[in-house]
């Protein structure tokens, strides 16, 4: 189990070749537990190699404790259990891709 600080939605985060933004936070049931995932988009617009972008989902893991504390930056923190099993990742990735218009699902 590990702590996960929830990011601010609709807030641009600058990265080396552009930026990304998380636009929504969702929970989906799986195997009697809930999976936390975020949907976002990335834009490559400051790279010397060209421009591009994609929609993606980030999966912190199974929720153990929902927003049970606040970090030093004022962000809510949940306790999550990262999903390491590749078969479970494939199942959850399929479910998320059916629900969301994303190109990729990344497990943290």
List keywords for this structure.
mainly beta; 108 residues; seven-stranded mixed sheet; 1 helix; 7 strands
Summarize the structure.
By secondary structure, this protein is mainly beta. It is 13% helix and 61% strand.
Radius of gyration over C-alpha positions, nearest whole angstrom: 15 Å
Give a quick account of the main beta sheet: strands, pairing sense, barrel closure: 7 strands, mixed
The overall strand count is: 7
Distance between the termini: 12 Å
Architecture blueprint of SSEs:
Layout (H helix, E strand, L loop, with lengths): L1 E4 L7 E3 L2 E13 L2 E15 L2 E21 L5 E6 L4 H14 L4 E4 L1
Parallel strand pairs: 5-7
Antiparallel strand pairs: 1-6, 2-3, 3-4, 4-5, 5-6
Description:
The chain is mostly beta strands and 108 residues long. It has one domain (2-107). Helices cover 13% and strands 61% of the residues. It is built from 1 helix and 7 strands; from the N terminus they run E-E-E-E-E-E-H-E. Strands 1, 2, 3, 4, 5, 6 and 7 form a 7-stranded mixed beta sheet that branches. Strand 2 (13-15) and strand 3 form a beta hairpin. The relative contact order is 0.25.
């Amino acid at each position: 189990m590990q702590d996960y600080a929830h990011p601010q939605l609709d807030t641009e985060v600058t990265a080396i070749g552009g930026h990304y933004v998380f636009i929504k936070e969702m929970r989906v049931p799986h195997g009697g537990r809930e999976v936390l995932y975020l949907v976002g988009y990335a834009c490559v617009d400051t790279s010397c190699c060209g421009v591009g972008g994609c929609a993606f989902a980030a999966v912190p893991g199974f929720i153990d404790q929902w927003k049970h504390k606040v970090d030093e930056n004022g962000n809510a923190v949940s306790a999550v259990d990262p999903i390491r099993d590749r078969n479970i990742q494939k199942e959850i990735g399929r479910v998320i891709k059916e629900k969301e218009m994303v190109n990729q699902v990344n497990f943290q």
